[in-house]
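thought: fold this chain, then report.
action: predict
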Amino acid sequence: MPIKLLKGKKGIIFGALDEKSIAWKTALKCHEAGASLVLTNAPVALRMGEINKLSELCGNAPVIGADVTHLDDLKNLLQESMNHFGGKIDFILHSVGMSMNVRKGHHYTEISYIHNHKTLDISALSLHKVLHTAWSMDAISEWGSVVALTYIAAQRVFPDYNEMADAKALLESVARNFGYHYGVRNKVRVNTVSQSPTRTTAGSGVKGFDGFLTYAEQMSPLGNATADDCANYCVTLFSDLTRYVTMQNLFHDGGFSFTGVTQGVIDKM
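observation:
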């Protein structure tokens, strides 16, 4: 029987597209841990995905569409969520990212800046917009928790990760800076989780993804962390067991981030 770490807590999950999504798996784990949920994604993603199936699996959790780049959509989402819960929100998962330059195969040195602005808005500034809207509406409970998913390309060069590396670096900066202010005012903590490369629908669209995956597996003492394990980690960050963890970029990658080289990689050289 699952441990009810989130019993009585209420949360919003952004970005669950299909069963491969980390957000999807996190929603299931939060539900198992006793949380009540609202599920959200962009209207176009709701049409493409299977979120109504996830809703049923999570006790018929409401599904509310919201474009994360539009403040009015976010305000409506938070207000509808608080109406549903009958009070403030305890946790939020931000699992949102999109790059038109990656989709169109533009090399990093030749990106479209119009597309780049959209990437930064959706993949990074959206976290600021979510936090700003919640701050303005006083929507998150004291000791609440916000987690955004990121990747180590924010710190290291992965040539084919393209402009998403810049977006993740900005995302992590937003988490630190807004985390300071939200912590001072409401004891709300804000963290990012830097996950192993994971075979999600979005991640698999990055050029050379299989190489990322194989290399990380060889370079990680524990091997790559799965989406299910990332979901479990997010549950702990939403729980009261991690009340004093904030403004951190937390690597959930089997040790990859602090390994210089492994014997397995040396043997293959």
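thought: worth noting. The chain has ten helices and six strands.
final: tokens above.
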